[in-house]
Amino acid sequence: MRNSIGVILGAALVLGLSAVAQAGTITYGPTLHNNGGPPFYLGYNVGTFEVPQFLAGPDDILTSVLLRVKVESYDGGHAIDNNMWDWAGSVTLGIGAYVGVQGPVPVGGSRLTVDSRATETATGSVTVDHGGSTDFIGPDSVSMTGHYATDTKADSRTAALDLAPYIGAGDVTFAFTGNTSTYGTGPLPDGGNWVIFPEYKFTTTVEYTFTPEPATLSLLALGGLALIRRRRMT
């Protein structure tokens, strides 16, 4: 009985070690997208990029695909001048960049989608209009200067239908949309609005996670069991 327990435990150990040894990841990236800069992307941009499909081996099963997007924005500025003689209050200005990346559309499945936003904000108090003109100076004006902002987002899929477009011997195409952004809250008073849009760049990482198929693991376990029994006989 004790020998049987030892054999079973040994086989389980071989099974576990086989799974650890065979499971793994294939990573493409981080890949830089910077418009050949500097200068980097500015304003609205669209494009595509490709990575190889998953083709690790005949016995491997793709279990997940992960997409990670990091966007970085640089410089820029935003200012507002209050032209209302009867309004004063606090306003918040913002500038930054947005990048959205999407994978292929699977038949009957869910598409990989990542939206990443790198923004900077500044809050200030605005007095009533003091000069009757839009000059962006004085207590009825508030402004900000951007320096650097970053944001990283990720999305993953594990369902078989979602993974289908990533399996094969070719390439898989991702689409991206990027844009600079400006916004304000407060509410913003009526008046002049001045913006210098920031530049931006982004990186993408695509990661495949895979494991051996169950039949392969079973054969490995049986091989380990036979090895253990042979050692005990000798």
Q: Could you walk me through the main structural features you see in this protein, from its secondary elements to its overall organization?
A:
The chain is an alpha+beta fold and 234 residues long. 19% of the residues lie in helices and 50% in strands. The protein is built from three helices and eleven strands; from the N terminus they run αββββββββαβββα. The protein has helices at residues 2-22, 160-163, 214-233, and strands at 24-33, 45-52, 60-74, 77-82, 89-102, 113-126, 141-145, 148-157, 171-185, 191-196, 199-212. α1 (2-22) crosses α3 (214-233). The protein is elongated and about 75 Å long.
SSE blueprint:
Layout: H1 2-22, E1 24-33, E2 45-52, E3 60-74, E4 77-82, E5 89-102, E6 113-126, E7 141-145, E8 148-157, H2 160-163, E9 171-185, E10 191-196, E11 199-212, H3 214-233
Antiparallel strand pairs: 1-11, 2-9, 3-8, 3-11, 4-7, 4-10, 5-6, 5-9
Helix pairs in contact: 1-3
